[in-house]
Amino acid sequence: MATEFDSYSERKAFDETKAGVKGLVDAQITEIPRIFHDPLGTLNDKKAPVANSEFAIPIIDFTGVHGDAASREAVVKKVKDAAEKWGFFQVINHGVPLTVLEEIKDGVRKFHEEDIEVKKSYFSRDFSKKFVYHSNFNLYSSSSINWRDTFGIYMDPKPPQPEEIPEACREGVLEYSKHVMSLGGLLFELLSEALGLSSDTLKSKGCMKGVLMLSHYYPPCPQPKLTLGTSKHSDNSFLTVLLQDQIGGLQVLHQDCWVDVTPTPGALVINIGDFLQLVTNDRFISVQHRVLANKAGPRISVASFFSTSMHPNPTVYGPMKELLSEENPAKYRDFTIPEYSAGYLKQDINDESHLAYFKI
Are 310 and 111 in contact (CB under 8 A)? Predict the structure, then answer.
C-alpha cells in the first residue's frame, strides 16, 4: 500500500507542475523519476527487435492511384496485402505537400517548447475540450508512465475555431488537417476496394465520422532503457494516419518480433485500428505497436485517428454483412464505439488487445 500511495503522490506531484516531461528535461535531471520506470520489463521481453533486412514495413507509392484502372488496381493489391499481413504500411506520393508536413512538425515543436506559462493555460484532463495539452492521458490508471507530452485536437465533425488553437501551431494544424481528411477519404476507398466492395462502402458506414489529432513530443531521455515513449497498444480507431520525424523509435509487433518503422522522408505511416479489424471480421488486422524512448530527441509525431471515440455516436457496428457467409461467420458481436472506448480507456495500456472482449 505504501508503494502504491507513493506512486500516486509522485504522479500527482508531476501532474500538478503542468510542465510535463519537457519540464523534467528542462530541470536537467540525470535520472528519470521511478514513476516512469517500466514495471513490466517489456523492454527486455523475448520479442527481440529485428534488423530491417529480415522484415520491413511495406512502402506503397500512391503515384498511380488516380491514373488508369490497372495502376489503381496495383495500388489496391499492395494496400490489401499490407492490411492483411502487417496492419501497417507507409505511403509516399500521397498528395500532402512536403511544405505542409514540415509546417505541422515545426508547429508541434514550437508549442511544446513554448513558455511554460503559455502551455499551462491549455493544460487539462478534460478530454472533451477542443484543444487539450497534457502528459499521459492515463497518468493515474496505467502501470507505465510514458516519456512524452501531447496535445490533442478534435478536427471533425466540429473543428475548433482558429483562435482556439495556440498561435504556435495554428496554421500548421489547420492546413495539415485538410490534407489528412482528403487522404483519409482516399484510404477508405482503397481499403473498400481491397475487400472487393464498392469504393464508398467504408465511408458510407461512418468510418470517417470524427477525427482526433494527437501531436506528441518525446523529449530526449537520460535513461531510455528504463522507460518507453509509448507503451505497446493497438489503436482505438478505424484507421490512423501518422506523421513522424526522422528520429525513429516506432516499432510494430510482427510475427512475434518488434520491427522498426524506419522514417522515410515525405512518407506517412498508415495503420489499421481495432474497429476496422472488427468490421472486416479479421480480414484486416490491428496490430500492437510502441515507441522507444531515446537520447537523440525531441521526437515529433502527429497521429490522426479516424474515430468518434470521445463523442456520442449511437451507430451500431459489427462484422460487415457483405463479408460474411456460412464458411465465414461473424467472429465478433455488435458494438457501439462509446461502448468499446469506455473499456479500452479503462484497460492498462500493456494489456492485450481489447478486441478479445468482443469475440463471439
Answer: no
Could you tell me the three cell numbers for 200?
464508398
* pLDDT class of 1 with cuts at 50, 70, 90: very low
> Domains of the chain by range and CATH?
2-358 (2.60.120.330)
Whether 12 has a pLDDT exceeding 50, the answer reads yes
**DSSP string covering 275-342:** HHHHHTTTSS----EEEE--SS--EEEEEEEE--TTS----EE-S-GGG--SSS---B--EEHHHHHH
Instruction: Answer positive or negative: Cα dihedral of 117, 121, 127, 131.
Output: negative
Cis, bond preceding 298 (omega within 30 deg of 0)? yes
Q: What are phi and psi of 271, to 5 degrees?
A: -140, 150
DSSP assignments along 154-217, one per residue: EEESSPPPGGGS-TTTHHHHHHHHHHHHHHHHHHHHHHHHHTTS-TTHHHHTTTTS-EEEEEEE
CA-to-CA distance for 217 and 23, rounded, in angstroms?
A: 12
Cα gap 129→56, rounded to integer Å: 38
Which grid cell is 276?
476496422
Fill in the amino acid letter for 86: W
pLDDT digits (tens, 9 = 90+) for 237-253: 999 999 999 999 999 99
**Site of grid cell 520525424:** 245
Residues 127-153 pLDDT 10s? 888 899 999 999 998 887 999 999 999
Residue 132 CA from chain centroid, whole number? 16
Q: Are 155 and 213 in contact (CB under 8 A)?
A: yes
**Encoded amino acid at 54, one letter:** E
C-alpha distances out from residue 96 to 65, 147, 181, Å:
14, 29, 11
Contact 140, 146 (CB under 8 A): no
Spatial CA neighbour of 302 closest among 228, 213, 240? 213
Residue 243 near residue 268, CB atoms below 8 Å: yes
